[in-house]
């Protein structure tokens, strides 16, 4: 099974100028997608399709092949993925006699991926001969069953009509909807050559948990922060109650349960080589020694830590210039 990864990286961008090579946490953003392709044991070649010699040099520096410079006609704001990929496959076939069995698209605007997702999608396609492609998708927050079209007179018509008055139905009763998140596309060349598309006749879906597509400045900063937070070598200090353990206003700490998302986030940070310190005010108000109970709880919750500190002052509010919002950590790492 010959698997080719293509990273389309033109030099133009309206939303974030030169975003494909913009420095993100110390590296050009393009370098992350190249790394993802090279780390996959199922991908045989990683090439970058770009219209820029500058981009080509950066791509080669980080380990990718750049066998051609993409023609300008396929490097506009309105260029289709189909045109870009057909050009690449035609070039490799005509100039090298190279014809892959499977093609993987890794857009450079996704600097954060799990290589396991790439491998799983390749396996899914390789095991289903009838399938032409596999697309990465995520659950849609806004669903089409609640959407409308508006004409020039302001008259609304429902966007979806196959379910009568679906716009008045509870969300729970409507079909689950997914959107393609553009992180990973896996396809057979026949989709391009026979169906003249990037999907073909039968498309399978692979549900991804996290999405870090870079389209705005806010997206860029969010992804960069994720990379910097996860990178090993940092020292993280976590409160226990209300953060790791559920908060009990009666201060009966023996009977509280874990906050699973935060526990998962801590595990991820610790596995990445970060130091985890737990700092708690347990016993500050009651005068009770909660040390053994707390240690037993953290073990039962599955919380890895390097140090446990008692003696944090009890307060109504804590202010810290290095604080990270709990929702951000849970969203990033759980």
Q: Tell me the CATH topology of the largest domain.
A: Spore Coat Polysaccharide Biosynthesis Protein SpsA, Chain A
**Would you identify the CATH architecture of the largest domain?**
Alpha-Beta Complex
CATH class division of the largest domain: Alpha Beta
- Report the CATH superfamily of the largest domain: Spore Coat Polysaccharide Biosynthesis Protein SpsA, Chain A
Q: The biggest beta sheet, please?
A: 6 strands, mixed
Calculate the terminal CA-CA distance, rounded to whole Å: 34 Å
Provide the spatial order of strands within the biggest beta sheet: 4-1-5-9-6-10
Structural Rg: 25 Å
Low-confidence stretches: none
- List the helices and strands in order: EEEHEHHEHEEEEHEHEHEHEH
Morphology call? globular
Average predicted local confidence, pLDDT = 92
| Count of distinct structural domains | 3
Secondary structural class: alpha/beta
Give helix % range: 25-40%
- Topology, number of strands: 13
Discrete helix count? 9
Residues in β-strands, percent: 15-25%
Describe the structure.
The protein has 334 residues and is of the alpha/beta class. It folds into 3 domains: 3-139 and 177-215, Alpha-Beta Complex (Spore Coat Polysaccharide Biosynthesis Protein SpsA, Chain A), CATH 3.90.550; 141-176, no CATH class; 232-333, Rossmann fold (3-Layer(aba) Sandwich), CATH 3.40.50. Helix content is 29%, strand content 19%. It is built from 9 helices and 13 strands. Strands 4-1-5-9-6-10 form a 6-stranded mixed beta sheet, with helices on both faces. Strands 11-12-13 form a 3-stranded parallel beta sheet, covered by helices on one side. Helix 7 (260-271) packs across helix 9 (326-333). It is globular, with a radius of gyration of 25 Å. The mean pLDDT is 92.
